[in-house]
């Protein structure tokens, strides 16, 4: 009865037909119960329907509305009441069917197990034999196996045994009964067969069929699933051979729970679909390769379709993509067969859809406009652009990006065509406008206003021609020209008279830059131009001119500094400070021009923006005050006052000494002198004057007999008691007078001869004692060990032990060689310092060498005095006594060395007096005669015959030195100002920034030649290449020359770059150009030795070398004279060029060469590196970085507190400290804290 009720319930669920839906088996339907219209409730298997109905009947009947039948009765009505009244034999038949058990068992999770393994496992479980008692059909796509028992067994019991089997559990194999099916699968049915035809065919008794409940056609497989009402009808159908419309068809039992039919041994093998090859556009393929992650993203998308992609090689000319089935397709189980049949179409469609996102197009472009468009398009990450030809490109990438690019290219081409058409009609004209007026119009929006009205009209300004270029249609161009001329005619302007220094500043700077800083920054639309000596202002409105004039006068200023001591401007620290300030304010917005003294001038002028000028002025004033040496005197009433201040106020004197102030007491003249930096001396004078004025002096007359003897006997006691009790000093009047007389006796000296020589220097011969000689510096004749003994013992006694102590400190660095000199303090001597000159021991066999070394010692002594800014120097018999020199040879050597050295030192030298001091009358007389003879000789005396060779000649005349090459080219070293040059060509130097009028040389030429020189220079620099090593040629204008060659130099690179080569090219070009122009003479300054920091020795050697090289390697007819012009105050360059001139002359003289045989060159001369052997010492001069030197010791420059803050010491100190590291800095700090020790 339970089975009947179940079937009836299923009939209620599926409708009046009483048949199950094709997708649901009777067993499935028997497990559910319709609760209401929308609720499906489960029906437990094995439980009879009445029991289920009994459980739910009461609530269901209570929920039914009044007047309605219970839901069970409604279902019965809907299903047909006649089904409930079937005959008893139908019920019995159904009960019999339900009672049957399926002979087949499904084994699941058999992946990896072979059919043989499954057969053995089943044999072990059942005890039956495979093939004889049961068959096994493997369904690999479902990972299941179906065992069908040929022998009747209890399959339910068999399933339980399988579940409990250890082997089955180990491999996770499960077992269940296969349902009794009512369906078959008919395959290979004819196309277009209808379900009715199939129904009729299989219900025909001849075909073994029975009533059919449902038919499902599978047109893609040419198959159908036919479900019968009774499963017993399947046996007859399966046993027959079927022919449908003359087409053989096969039938197999179909199981809905498996989703497949069972074929037995004839189960078809499932074949994987073939790969699909799809052609790929080469440009799209190039795009995909160029974008990271694109191909990986496509691979992921296609993987969802059970497809893996094989992409072509990178350089493939005809790329193709292969679509291959992935391993995941075999995991689809029930849908595998259907998936395999539709896979090709599916993946092809999906791949086409994905690739439709990308597109490649060919575009025709204009080569002119395409460059700009291409730059913009290349920034788009969704594109690649490939040039096929000059006029054809391919754009590939994302469809949206390509569409945008195509639109832009199309617009570009259309624009190019329009412009090409317009270009045919365009005309170009120019309108003359000076830069100032154009700047005003530009700031007023000239170009913007024109382009608003005529967007295609082109307007530009030519700085070299000073014209506005207009290009466009004729009507547009002429209308704009008329408007421009009208604006120029009505533009307001005014002239402003300013100081000459400010005018020169404006002349040397860029007017556009300064106008922007002066006016544009203040929103004043005004520009200035220079005409003659006047500043012309152009503006947009009259009120702007008034504001601009106020701004000009308020923002620009100049200040001048009078330099009392011209030697300050020759100091290395001065040059470094100027270079630092120029660099600092040249790179800033507020530029400053610093003009150094020229010729006999002693004024430094700073011009520029007011604030910057004030800062530079303060820096320079501070430097000058620190380095200007002044001397002041304070009168005293008595020697007692001098002694009191000297003894009792020694701490004050020492404090002044730390500040660089030297205090001396002069008992004979009753004066206290202070000398030192101008900034500190007045302060010291004020302090000492206050001390002197605070002292009380009284002369006490004691007329009692014996008072003098009484005081004299107990002098020390009285002096000590007065000092202790009253803090006063008492002295005997006669003692002061006697001391004064003794001082007069000591200082007595007699002048025997005086000669004023070149530069205003006085050479004086005195008979006197050197120990109390009143000059700035005294020369001591010393031995190599600096031991003051023998004839120098008197000097040591007068100076005190401090002098020998300083010499001993110098000696620690090694013995001095003959010809050398060092400078130390003077101890108690009246002079400021002592120079220790080491002369050679006289040897007759090497007389030439001895004389040379003696001259070197004299020369070095004079240079040391010059270096330390001394005014007077005294020489004793340096080697005439202690080293056995013959007297006449000694005197000749010393006077000759003084004369030659004075010729090398400039006329503005600090050294004004040279004293030759001797105590013997004979020596004094020989000195007088020799000085008279040597300094009255004509400076143009001929060179000894032994020093001439061929046509080479070196001579001195009228302050010039000359040498002639073997080819006859005359080379002169001339000492005078550049503006006094009278040659056909003058060579000037400018920096790579091409700022004309900045350096001293350039500024002097500009002032002398006038502004036209700068105007032509500016024009030339815009017409030709203007880099380092190039030369610009202009006229000389009001200069005495015909042409000025402007050499463009870069700063000195320490010989490691191109600077030396550029200088060589410049000299050679200037010589060649002079010859080509048919000119006879050219003047070179010492190129690069000023602000460019080229070493004077390097420049002199290089320039002489290039002139001699030009003379020997060129066939020249016109050039006759080359002048190297040096400023009279430029001692370094004068020495370098003079020495090089003499070196070249000496190099050709046999005698001179033999005299220098003891000086041995260590290495060949190379620019930037020099080595020379002096005895056992190798002197090496190298340009480079001191922090990179690998010597045992390097010398740093600092002050007493080891915190150098000014001058060159600042940069050297900082560079060494940075390279040394923190450990050295810590040690230096410790020394700085102990400054009082030093």
Automatic annotation (TrEMBL):
UniProtKB keywords: Coiled coil, Glycosyltransferase, NAD, Nucleus, Signal, Transferase
InterPro entries, A to Z: Macro_dom, Macro_dom-like, Mono-ARTD/PARP, Nucleotide-bd_a/b_plait_sf, PARP14_KH_1, PARP14_KH_2, PARP14_KH_3, PARP14_KH_4
Subcellular location: Nucleus
Gene Ontology CC terms: cytoplasm; nucleus
PROSITE patterns: MACRO (PS51154)
A molecular-function term among this protein's GO annotations: ubiquitin-like protein ligase binding
Any one GO BP annotation for this protein: negative regulation of gene expression
Location, primary (coarse class): nucleus
Signal sequence residues: 1-18
Cross-referenced Gene3D superfamilies: 3.30.70.330, Leucine Aminopeptidase, subunit E, domain 1 (3.40.220.10)
Coiled-coil regions listed in the entry: 402-430
Domain Macro residues, every copy: 750-935, 958-1145, 1166-1238
Protein name: Macro domain-containing protein
């Amino acid at each position: 009865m339970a089975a009947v009720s179940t079937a009836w319930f299923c009939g209620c669920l599926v409708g009046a037909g009483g048949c199950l839906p094709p997708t649901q088996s009777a067993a499935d339907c028997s497990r559910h119960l319709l609760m209401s219209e929308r609720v499906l409730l489960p029906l437990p298997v094995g439980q009879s329907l009445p029991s289920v109905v009994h459980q739910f009947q009461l609530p269901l009947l209570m929920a039914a509305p009044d007047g309605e039948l219970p839901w069970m009765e409604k279902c019965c009505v809907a299903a047909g009441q006649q089904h409930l009244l079937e005959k008893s034999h139908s019920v019995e038949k159904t009960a019999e069917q339900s009672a049957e058990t399926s002979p087949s068992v499904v084994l699941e999770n058999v992946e990896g197990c072979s059919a043989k393994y499954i057969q053995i496992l089943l044999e072990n479980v059942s005890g039956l034999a495979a093939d004889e008692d049961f068959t096994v059909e493997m369904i690999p796509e479902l990972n299941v196996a179906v065992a069908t028992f040929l022998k009747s067994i209890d399959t339910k019991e068999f399933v339980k045994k399988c579940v409990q089997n250890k082997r089955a559990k180990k491999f996770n194999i499960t077992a269940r009964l296969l349902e009794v099916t009512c369906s078959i699968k008919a395959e290979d049915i004819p196309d277009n067969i209808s379900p009715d035809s199939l129904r009729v065919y299989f219900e025909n008794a001849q075909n073994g069929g029975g009533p059919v409940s449902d038919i499902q056609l599978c047109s893609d497989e040419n198959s159908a699933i036919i479900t019968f009402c009774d499963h017993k009808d399947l046996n007859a159908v399966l046993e027959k051979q079927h022919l449908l419309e003359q087409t053989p068809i096969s039938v197999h039992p179909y199981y809905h729970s498996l989703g497949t039919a069972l074929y037995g041994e004839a189960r078809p093998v499932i074949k994987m679909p073939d790969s699909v090859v799809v052609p790929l556009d080469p440009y799209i393929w190039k795009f995909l390769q160029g974008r990271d992650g694109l191909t990986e993203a496509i691979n992921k998308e296609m993987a969802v379709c059970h497809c893996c992609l094989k992409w072509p090689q990178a350089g493939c000319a005809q790329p193709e993509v292969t679509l291959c089935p992935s391993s995941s397709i075999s995991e689809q189980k029930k849908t595998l067969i259907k998936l395999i049949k539709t896979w090709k179409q599916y993946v092809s469609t999906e791949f086409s859809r994905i690739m439709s996102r990308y597109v490649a197009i060919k575009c025709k472009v204009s080569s002119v406009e395409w460059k700009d468009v291409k730059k913009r398009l290349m920034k788009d990450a969704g594109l690649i652009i490939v040039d096929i030809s000059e006029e054809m490109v391919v754009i590939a990438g994302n469809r949206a990006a390509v569409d945008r690019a195509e639109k832009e290219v199309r617009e570009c081409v259309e624009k190019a065509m329009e412009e090409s058409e317009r270009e045919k009609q365009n005309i170009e004209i120019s309108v003359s406008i000076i830069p100032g007026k154009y700047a005003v119009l530009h700031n007023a929006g000239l170009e913007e206003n024109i382009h608003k009205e005529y967007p295609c009209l082109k307007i530009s300004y030519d700085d070299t021609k000073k014209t506005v270029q207009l290009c466009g249609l004729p009507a547009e161009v002429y209308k704009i020209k008329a408007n421009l001329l009208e604006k120029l005619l009505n533009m307001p302007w005014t002239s402003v008279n300013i100081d000459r220094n400010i005018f020169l500043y404006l002349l040397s700077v860029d007017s556009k830059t300064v106008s922007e800083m002066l006016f544009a920054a203040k929103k004043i639309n005004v520009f200035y131009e220079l005409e003659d000596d006047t500043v012309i202002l152009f503006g947009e409105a009259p009120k702007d001119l008034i504001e601009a004039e106020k701004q000009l006068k308020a923002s620009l200023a100049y200040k001048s500094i009078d330099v009392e001591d011209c030697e300050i401007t020759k100091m290395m620290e001065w040059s470094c400070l100027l270079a630092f300030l120029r660099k600092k304010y040249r790179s800033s917005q507020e530029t400053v021009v610093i003009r150094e003294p020229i010729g006999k001038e002693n004024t430094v002028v700073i011009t520029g923006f007011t604030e910057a000028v004030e800062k530079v002025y303060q820096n320079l004033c501070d430097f000058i005050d620190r380095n200007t040496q002044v001397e002041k005197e304070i009168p005293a009433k008595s020697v007692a006052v001098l002694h009191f201040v000297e003894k009792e106020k020694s701490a004050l004197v020492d404090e002044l000494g730390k500040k660089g102030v030297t205090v001396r007491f002069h008992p004979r003249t009753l004066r206290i002198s202070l000398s030192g930096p101008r900034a500190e001396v007045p302060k010291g004078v004020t302090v000492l004057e206050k001390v002197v004025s605070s002292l009380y002096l009284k002369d006490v007359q004691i007329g009692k007999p014996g008072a003098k003897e009484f005081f004299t006997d107990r002098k020390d006691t009285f002096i000590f008691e007065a000092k202790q009790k009253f803090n006063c000093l008492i002295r005997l009047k006669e003692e002061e007078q006697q001391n004064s007389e003794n001082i007069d006796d000591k200082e007595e000296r007699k002048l025997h001869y005086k000669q004023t020589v070149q530069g205003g220097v006085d050479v004086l011969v005195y008979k006197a004692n050197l120990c109390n000689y009143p000059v700035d510096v005294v020369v001591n004749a010393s031995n190599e060990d600096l031991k003051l003994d023998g004839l120098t013992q008197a000097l040591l006694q007068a100076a005190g032990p401090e002098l020998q102590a300083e010499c001993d400190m110098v000696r620690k660095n090694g013995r001095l060689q003959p010809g050398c000199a060092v400078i130390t303090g003077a101890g108690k001597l009246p002079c400021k310092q002592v120079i220790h000159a080491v002369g050679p021991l006289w040897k007759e066999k090497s007389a030439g060498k001895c004389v040379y070394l003696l001259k070197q010692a004299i020369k070095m002594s004079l240079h040391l005095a010059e270096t330390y800014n001394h005014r007077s120097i005294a020489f004793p018999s340096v080697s005439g006594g202690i080293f056995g020199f013959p007297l006449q040879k000694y005197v000749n050597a010393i006077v000759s060395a003084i004369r030659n050295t004075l010729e090398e030192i400039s006329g503005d030298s600090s050294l004004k007096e040279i004293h030759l001091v001797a105590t013997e009358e004979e020596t004094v007389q020989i000195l007088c005669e020799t000085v008279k003879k040597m300094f009255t000789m004509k400076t143009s005396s001929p060179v000894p015959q032994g020093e001439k060779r061929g046509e080479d000649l070196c001579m001195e005349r009228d302050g010039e030195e000359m040498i002639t090459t073997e080819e006859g080219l005359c080379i002169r070293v001339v000492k005078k100002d550049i503006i006094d040059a009278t040659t056909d060509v003058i060579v000037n130097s400018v920096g790579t920034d091409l700022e004309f009028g900045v350096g001293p040389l350039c500024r002097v030429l500009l002032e002398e030649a006038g502004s036209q020189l700068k105007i032509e220079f500016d024009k030339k620099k815009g017409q030709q290449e203007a880099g380092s090593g190039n030369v610009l040629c202009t006229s000389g204008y009001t200069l005495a020359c015909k042409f000025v060659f402007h050499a463009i130099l870069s700063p000195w690179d320490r010989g490691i770059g191109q600077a030396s080569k550029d200088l060589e090219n410049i000299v050679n070009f200037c010589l060649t150009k002079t010859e080509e122009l048919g000119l006879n003479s050219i003047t070179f300054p010492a190129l690069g030795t000023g602000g460019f920091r080229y070493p004077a020795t390097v420049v002199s050697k290089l320039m002489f070398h290039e002139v001699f090289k030009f003379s020997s390697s060129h066939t020249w007819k016109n050039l006759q004279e080359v002048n190297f012009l040096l400023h009279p105050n430029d001692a370094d360059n004068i020495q370098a060029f003079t020495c090089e001139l003499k070196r070249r002359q000496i190099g050709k003289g046999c005698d001179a060469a033999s005299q220098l045989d003891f000086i041995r060159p260590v290495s060949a001369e190379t620019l930037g590196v020099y080595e020379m052997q002096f005895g056992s010492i190798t002197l090496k001069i190298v340009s480079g970085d001191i922090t990179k030197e690998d010597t045992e010791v390097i010398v740093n420059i600092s002050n007493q507190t080891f915190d150098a803050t000014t001058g060159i010491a600042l940069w050297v100190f900082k560079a060494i400290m940075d390279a040394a590291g923190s450990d050295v800095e810590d040690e230096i700090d410790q020394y700085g804290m102990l400054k009082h020790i030093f």
